[in-house]
Amino acid sequence: MTTYDERASLTDLTTTADRIRESVEAVIEGKPEVVRLSLTVLLAEGHLLIEDVPGVGKTMLAKALARSIDCSVRRIQFTPDLLPSDITGVSIFDQQQREFEFKPGAIFSQIVIGDEINRASPKTQSALLESMEERQVTIDGESYELPTPFMVVATQNPVEMEGTYPLPEAQRDRFMARVSIGYPSAEAELRMLDVHGGVSPLDDLRPVAHAHEIVKLIETVREVHVAESIRRYAVELVAATRTHPDLRLGASPRATLHLLRAAKATAALAGRDYALPDDVQSLVVQILAHRLLPTAQAQLNRRTAEQVVLEILQRTPVPTAEGTETSYLARGGGPTVYRQPGARRP
Questions:
Q1: Mean pLDDT across 196-224
Q2: How far apart, in whole angstroms, are the C-alpha atoms of residue 134 and residue 245?
Q3: Which residues touch 262 (CB under 8 Å, ≥6 apart)?
Q4: Rounded percentage of the chain residues whose pLDDT exceeds 70
Q5: What is the 3-state secondary structure (H, E, C) of the chain?
Q6: 309 compared with 124, residue with greater pLDDT
Q7: What pTM did the predictor assign?
Q8: Helices 253-269 and 211-222 meet at what angle, rounded to 10?
Q9: What whole-number distance in Å separates Cα of residue 185 and Cα of residue 197?
Q10: What are phi and psi of 123, to 5 degrees?
Q11: From 137, 150, 151, 157, which residue has the greatest number of CB atoms within 10 Å?
Q12: pLDDT at 174
């Protein structure tokens, strides 16, 4: 059981998160929502997939987030000739000791930057599956624990571009959220020319938080309360993707867990120790869309997974809070109790 000393207060969490956000935004111009989502995934113990065309700052965002935290960072450039052992490590026979010695790979770091992950073969991509889910690596029958906190920030180019391999469904499902940076506005691009024109802003970036602080913030996020009606709401949203006629593959139970964890982190970043339906709604597209596979007919009709998720979001009844102030004060400042519309009073 987590003790209070192992957790940070919500004030400490928001203060530390603001420092990291300001540090990253000093490098990434005009994309505050992308930076906030990155922080949310970090505090929710997830992994982030950044997908966009080349040159919009995917790797820059990953590096800025990594350099803002005083922890171990390794970068892996995914190429067609990259081997799984280059990521996980390999056992080498020591002739002096007459035994095999394990040499850790690049995955043994607290923040791992996977650059252009979909340029490597599916065999190499699969080397990340165990580490991203179980936070360990098994080599020659022996398991090695990965450090804490552990986060994979991967970038990829759209699959239509030359030299890319589509990520397997199991790989995409392990990423908590997918985000697209997009092109900057004209004003942000002008500021970028001023800041990036001479030297790289990454050169001046210094850590503003320590790894042990992030561990405490993660423990604080775990303690955020989620009412039963909101948990049921998340389950209904995910379950609707499994029966939608425009989808041949819906979201997994892992997606439901990721949605709940991200909602907790969003609430904590807002200074609340309880989650609201808005916390779920604000993240549902980024967390669910990349896991879904549209049918052939939906693709012919140019229906995207994002459009389907938004449609499900509009159709699913939202839990309502009745007597919010009374419930909050009755619990001594605790979470508000939500119930479904039309439900009978207890």
A1: 86
A2: 33
A3: 40, 41, 44, 46, 176, 177, 279, 283, 287
A4: 88
A5: CCCHHHCCCHHHHHHHHHHHHHHHHCCCCCCHHHHHHHHHHHHCCCCEEEECCCCCCHHHHHHHHHHCEECCEEEEECCCCCCHHHHHEEEEEECCCCEEEEEECCCCCCEEEEECHHHCCHHHHHHHHHHHHHCEEEECCEEEECCCCCEEEEEECCCCCCCCCCCCHHHHHHCCEEECCCCCCHHHHHHHHHHHCCCCHHHHCCCCEEHHHHHHHHHHHHCCECCHHHHHHHHHHHHHHHHCCCEEECCCHHHHHHHHHHHHHHHHHCCCCECCHHHHHCCHHHHHHHHCEECHHHHHCCCCHHHHHHHHHHHCCCCEECCHHHHHHHCCCCCCCEECCCCCCC
A6: 309
A7: 0.84
A8: 110
A9: 17
A10: -60, -40
A11: 151
A12: 93
Q: By C-alpha distance, which of 192, 265, 207 is closest to 66? A: 207
The pair of structure tokens assigned to 293 is 């596979």
First to last CA, the chain: 32
Query: Can you give the length of the chain in residues?
Result: 346
